[in-house]
Design goal:
Order of helices and strands: HHHHHHHHHHHHHHHHHH
Number of helices: 18
CATH architecture of the largest domain: Up-down Bundle
Structural class: mainly alpha
Number of strands: 0
Largest sheet: none
CATH superfamily of the largest domain: MFS general substrate transporter like domains
CATH topology of the largest domain: Growth Hormone, Chain: A
Radius of gyration: 21 Å
Helix content: over 70%
CATH class of the largest domain: Mainly Alpha
Strand content: under 5%
Length: 469
């Protein structure tokens, strides 16, 4: 079957229908469980802490271990995708994620659960590192924006469903079942992916995996996260200085090594492509803004307005629901409208929504909150698909894995920075922390809109310009 798909790929631009639809489903299933697992455990943390006899500060590592594993390994997996093929890396990620989900389900101690979550994070990193690169092979060049729109829709739907799914399971079953739901979805995704995902032609036949750069990458990003966490949790100053110094030194030599490599693990050479670097910067700023808002708002809803957990989940849901509606539309619009324009408009709407949220009345109705959340979701959805399409389409096809990895890294760094800034604001401005966080979020969104508009001086990638097809 795979050989037949390879022949079809070489003869056509993208996979033919209906094979294309099955391949898209394989990507969507893998992406949905990896995103869902990034949020579904949050709801169960108090229950897990009580059941496993651990403290609230320790149980947070059930979430942190997952995120840390993704952050330190996503670039390594994207490099492996460029070397050995995106299909192989994606299938490995699905297998590891499904196996580790079983391990999470069977865990009976904090140590085994945390270790299983680390393995889950590595599986999720492999999935995320190449899924957009695979979309570039699956879809015709002129329709790559639609593929990114579907991806954004899947992510938004998974984010929206996370709290509801978790609450529903916990109301009738033990917390272990939160991870068991991944098993049937993972097995189905593995079957469809094995049967229908195409092999990409591996053009860098002499390239070898750079183990030294992979280790330096992991240590660099781990030190960055630990330094930011140290600042957030008021760690002793000399420890923060030590971690920051080690990050700067190791990071310097890591970047220097990347600049000397013909095919670097962190594709810093791609940043020399203006529209690519501007799109990565737009993504970094926008996800920082998103995290500032989504971390700070639940505290405002609970501590100031008095809503309970289920009500807070309902109030946060309109944001991803709006993305679900808008993302596929913007994915089609980018085939005809420059991503710089769509990003500039979308991020401006996003900023307006954030600023309006920061100036809520003292006793807002639910409608006052919901329509502002919808405005934020519309703006974010309008920007996200065109931005991702531009990132993946602006590089040579055999470097798609590196571009996909850089996209994921920008998102993760933005989210980490946003969470850290929120924690700092909460300690510095205890009386009005949510408003300050939202104002800073709006500022980052305006900055992202400005960077997006700078892309207007650059031509759209050929893959996005339907008139050139």
């Amino acid at each position: 079957m795979v050989k037949d798909l390879d022949d079809l790929e070489r003869r056509s631009d993208g996979l033919p229908i209906p094979i294309r639809y099955w391949a898209i489903l394989a990507i969507a299933l893998g992406l949905s469980v990896s995103v869902l697992d990034g949020t579904i455990a949050n709801v169960a943390l108090p229950t897990i802490a009580q059941n496993l006899n651990t403290s609230p500060s320790n149980v947070i590592w059930v979430v942190n271990a997952y995120q840390l594993a993704i952050t330190i390994s996503i670039l390594s997996f994207s490099s492996l995708g460029d070397i050995f093929g995106y299909r192989k890396v994606y299938l490995f990620g699905l297998l590891l994620f499904t196996f580790s989900s079983l391990a999470c389900t069977l865990s009976n101690s904090f140590f085994t659960l945390t270790l299983s979550r680390v393995l889950q994070g590595f599986g999720a990193a492999a999935i995320a590192s190449v899924n957009t690169a695979l979309l570039r092979i699956i879809h015709p060049k002129r329709n790559i924006g639609r593929g990114m729109g579907i991806n954004a829709l899947v992510v938004a739907f998974s984010l929206a469903a996370g709290p509801t799914v978790a609450s529903s399971i916990l109301s009738v079953a033990h917390w272990n079942w939160l991870f068991a739901i991944n098993l049937p979805i993972g097995i189905l995704a593995i079957y469809i992916a094995f049967k229908y995902l195409p092999q990409n032609p591996v053009k860098i036949t002499r390239r070898r995996f750079d183990f030294l750069s992979s280790a330096a990458n992991a240590v660099t990003f781990a030190l960055l996260i630990f330094t930011m966490e140290g600042i957030t949790h008021e760690q002793k100053l000399h420890f923060i200085i030590l971690e920051a110094s080690a990050f700067i030194i190791i990071g310097y030599f890591f970047i220097r090594r990347q600049l000397q490599q013909e095919d670097p693990l962190m594709p810093v050479d791609l940043l020399r492509i203006p529209i690519f670097s501007l799109s990565i910067s737009t993504s970094l700023c926008s996800f920082t803004a998103q995290m500032l808002a989504t971390v700070s708002l639940p505290f405002f809803f609970q501590n100031t307005l008095g809503y309970d957990s289920s009500q807070i989940g309902m109030l946060l849901t309109p944001w991803p629901l709006a993305i679900i509606v808008v993302a596929p539309i913007s994915g089609r619009l980018v085939e005809h409208i420059h991503a710089g324009i769509l990003g500039g408009i979308g991020l401006t709407i996003f900023a307006i929504g954030l600023f309006l949220m920061s100036f809520l009345p003292d006793h807002p109705s639910r409608f006052d909150i919901v329509w502002r959340m919808v405005l934020c979701g519309i703006g974010f959805g309008l920007f996200q698909s065109p931005n991702n399409s531009t990132i993946i389409s602006s590089v040579p096809q055999h470097r798609s894995g590196g571009a996909s990895g850089m996209m994921g890294t920008a998102r993760l760094l933005g989210q980490t920075l946003g969470a850290t800034l929120t924690a700092m604001i909460f300690s510095l401005v205890p009386g009005n922390s949510t408003k300050a966080s939202l104002l800073l979020a709006g500022t980052f969104a305006i900055l992202a809109a400005g960077i997006s508009c700078l892309r207007l001086s650059q031509s759209s990638p050929t893959a996005l310009n339907s008139k050139k097809e």
